[in-house]
Design brief:
By secondary structure, the chain is an alpha/beta fold. The protein contains six helices and six strands. It has one domain: Rossmann fold (3-Layer(aba) Sandwich), CATH 3.40.50. It has a six-stranded parallel sheet with strand order 3-2-1-4-5-6, with helices on both faces. α5 links the parallel β5 and β6.
């Protein structure tokens, strides 16, 4: 089975987490778009991916991309997810799918009408700190656990 080609729109912390999750799932990251072409080039270089896209239009025009990960600020999710679905691409959109219920329902209806997959994931399980904690628990390094409480600082705050 051929690997799915994905593009990530958004090169911040959550975009990097999506990249790791996609690689662990066996996808091929074709490229990244960011807040500016320069930022996209920087991310493409540091992520070792072949393309730096100008914008969402550049992403959806790439025939090697079957799945678009939308990892941008919340107010951009609906328009980018809609553009990708209308271009025949599957969508993995970071939370929230949209900023209004009407927009979220419209995206769900669009995805259903096209037969494409559109989903909102929970990718923190692929974050390196979470993976390390899971490995330590699995190896019994922490003994029997009764409760885990965690918190973290987000780089965008």
């Amino acid at each position: 089975m051929p690997k799915l080609g994905i593009a990530i729109v958004g090169a911040g912390m959550i975009g990097a987490v999506h990249r790791r999750a996609a690689l662990l799932a066996g996808a091929e990251v074709r490229g990244v778009a960011a807040s500016s072409p320069q930022r996209a080039h920087e991310a493409a270089h540091s992520w070792n991916v072949p393309r730096a896209y100008r914008d969402i239009e550049d992403v959806i025009a790439d025939p090697q991309v079957q799945v678009v990960h939308v990892c941008t600020p919340n107010h951009l999710h609906r328009a980018m997810a809609q553009a990708a679905l209308e271009a025949g691409k599957h969508v993995i959109c970071e939370k929230p799918l949209a900023t209004t219920l009407d927009d979220a329902q419209a995206l769900a209806a669009l995805a259903a009408s096209t037969g494409l997959v559109a989903t909102v994931p929970f990718v923190y399980r692929y974050h390196p700190v979470v993976r390390e904690a899971r490995a330590r628990i699995a190896h019994g390094e922490l003994g029997p656990l009764h409760l885990i409480h965690g918190s973290y600082l987000q780089d965008w705050l």
